[in-house]
Amino acid sequence: MDTDPRSPVCLAPHFAFLPIDSNKGEIRLLKIELGRYGEVIKCSYRLTTVTGDVQYETLSYVWGDLQVDKTIIVEDTEVGLTDNLFNALTRIRHETELRHLWVDALCINQEDGAEKTAQVDMMHKIFSECAQCYMWMGNIEASAIGVKESEALEAAKGALDAIRLLSGEDSEYKLPPSLTTRDQRAKAGNAIKALFQSPWWSRIWTVQEATSPRLGTVLWGPISIPWHYLTQVAERLIQGKWPPEDRFSIFDLFENYNFLTSPMLALIWASRWIEAPHPPYEMLYRFRYRRSTDPRDKVYVILNLVAEGSYPLPSVRSSDYGVPAAVLYRRVMLDLLRDEYGLRPLIGFRGEPKSVPGLPSWVVDWSTPPAGQERAAFWEHIKFWYKYTADRGLPMLDLNNLTSPEHGEDVLNVNGVFFDKILVCSDVIAENDGSDRLHEKARETITRAVAEDPRFRIVSEVYWQAVLDDIITGNCADSTESMEGSTADVYWRLQMLRHQRLFITEGGAAGLGPSGTSVGDEIWVLSGGRSPFLLGPLKASDPVVKHEDSSYHYSFRGDVFIPGIMRGEAVDSRKDTQRYVHIH
């Protein structure tokens, strides 16, 4: 049997999909025959359209471990499935009712690129027109809940009963038998956490599959609960609409509920994009760290979250799986820069590695980074972006010449002024670095600077100490401004230092830059950049440089903070030195 190694389905060489015409809006449905638990699952195909006369349901699930070791029968042919997909179909198959189910791996010919593109483009319609969507969370795992195998099902039932109570469906908050004791409630709380630890919550396509259907049902092993209960719980918890303390204390379940409200609120926001889409960079960043088997899906899912006929990314009008991921991501980045009329999509880089081969340094890698690697801090940096005007006095970003035939599509051309070079920098600031260690890194950086250039001794040492202290303590942020539940200076200390480096320049300036900051890197103020940016000079010998003269050719590092130039001061005295830089 042959299989796509990235698919949860293994098809025999002679297996033939029932032909469909996507141009007519046709889709395949899997008709699941009646059967009892343990009997072979037998299916056949039926053609229809999303608005046809066949009432159908959809399945939202995680491909998961792609080891194929279960089988079903489709069109009288044996088909291999992964455990997770097999378990989902086993759960949905009914003894007395036929099921017409749309499930991606079995209803789309994954080997036919044209069909896959057309069907993926139809997925919003497929899910929005279904009778209901089954959201398969997997089997109930005792180890995930922290109970004995014999207690797992009861704990899970208690979890769903608790969700019903928190949803406000029962205004009297009558406790069911599964929640009468504190021990039961504690186990139910652990089970709710286990439910939200299901891999389903980390998959990119489940965003669309959860937000498009009119009706959804969460399936968890043999038990289920309506999807809208979960949305109601999240909204009520955020609004402070808790059950009466004397009837049902939420803290008997868990001390903190961010694990529930955070993913649910993100999905609630996404469900509203069909009517009021957010800026495309926000939509992409909102679910950036969800997983996808194909890195291109991180972009294509956005097309299915906005109104039909609207194109938030002008160069990406369909889910074209013939386009390499690196080319797609580069086109997306250019779309974002043009949509923003500026360089905001470039902020927050903190040394995150590229997983997609051939990706230019200035292009965001939307695929999930390797575990344990730094993650970009876009949401943190954006809170300070509009407070700065480093590019004041420069012309607007030239949207028509971001790339050029001379340098190629992978090279970003931006006008700007040179400010300075990095003389020395600290070690990368770790997340667990305390105040003492941060001040120690500042002193080490100053010592290195004096050793590199003794002219800076005495006068500059005092200045550097003051500047770096302000950066470390957050004195560069407004202590009277509220930000994410704290003041801006506290937020700065908590979020703006990790995975960054302190540095001192050859001209004596001091600042904060990304983890990739290196000696000799250059600081530029660029058109469309409210913050200065750090660029790494390239050499003629670098493979990406296709010119004998490598002057003004760079690799992108990230945005930097330097007191004294965040309000346009660097541009005021350098307007006559403007020139284009070429970022590879």
Identify the notable features of this structure and list them briefly.
584 residues, alpha+beta, ten-stranded mixed sheet, five-stranded mixed beta barrel, 18 helices, globular, disordered N terminus
How would you summarize what this structure contains?
It contains 18 helices and 19 strands. It is of the alpha+beta class and 584 residues long. The protein starts with 8 loop residues before the first strand and ends with a strand.
Describe the fold and architecture.
It is built from 18 helices and 19 strands. The two termini are 44 Å apart. The chain folds into three domains: 9-130, no CATH class; 142-197 and 227-266, no CATH class; 280-583, no CATH class. The chain has 584 residues and is an alpha+beta fold. A ten-stranded mixed sheet has the order 1-6-5-3-2-7-4-8-9-10, sandwiched between helices. A five-stranded mixed barrel has the order 11-16-17-18-19. β18, α18 and β19 (579-583) form a beta-alpha-beta unit.
